[in-house]
Write a structure and sequence with these properties.
Helix content: 55-70%
Number of helices: 4
Order of helices and strands: HHHH
Distance between the termini: 37 Å
Bound molecules: zinc ion
Number of strands: 0
Largest sheet: none
Strand content: under 5%
Radius of gyration: 22 Å
Number of domains: 1
Amino acid sequence: MAKVIELNQRQDQQRRRQRAQARRRAQAVASALACGLCPRRCAHCGLAIEEPVTLPSEAPYPFCGPCLEEYQAFRRRQQGQEQPEAFWHNDAWARSWSTWLEFMRSKEEFRQSAAFLRLMQEHID
Ligand SMILES: [Zn+2]
């Protein structure tokens, strides 16, 4: 009988550990997806936006002034501007913007998925 009780206690401990681990993972997923959503932080560089920037309608995320200028330079390049506006506006720079924008879109898509909503409902208070 004592062995049965001990086994039940061990199984309970294991279930509690698994629930705690699932909860920590859900919180990590939620935190990762929250990055870039705060309107007072630049979605691109993460710095606090001290001076409010009037964002043009094509800006998909809150940007600080310098990141907005970089984003707009990237967009002009995408639209065919061939002359770089700064020496660092090389192919790698353009790829980093393009990849970052795709990353942000994929986070939005995941955030709106049924699986994400279920994860939040089941593991976040
Ligand atoms: Zn910024």
